[in-house]
Prior knowledge:
By secondary structure, the protein is an alpha/beta fold. It is built from four helices and three strands, in the order H-E-H-H-E-H-E.
Amino acid sequence: MQFTAYVTAIKSKNPDLEIGFYLSARLFIKNVNEGANSTWFDFCKMNDVLDFYVIEFATFNECCDEFLHSGVTPLDSTDPAVMTLNKFAAALKQSTIAKDKVYFEFLISPTPKREELENLNHCVLSYNEV
C-alpha cells in the first residue's frame, strides 16, 4: 500500500511527528466489509504506521425534519437507510482498525438545511442559537 509507505517515509524523517487519519463514520459503516477491496483501507497495515484515527459524524445523516429533535446521530432507527450509532458500533467492533487509536468528532453546532444556506451568513451560526 503506497499510503503506508508514504507515512513511514515521513516518520523516518520526523520521528516525533504523530500522524493520524480522518474518516467518515457513514463511509466506515458502508465499507466495513470491504477490507480486502482495494478501494477501501487495510487497517491491519495502517495500524502499524498511524498514531490515531479521527472518525467524524458531521456527514452521518443529512439534517432534515426527521432529525430535528434527536440530531443527525440517532442511537437506533427502524429505517434501514438511516445511519445509527448502533450500526456504527457493530461496524467498529467488526473492523480491524486499532480501537485504542480511535477518536470521535461530533458537531455541537446546528447544521442548517441546504435550502436555507443562502439566507444565512456563515458567521451567524453558533451553538448559542440552538
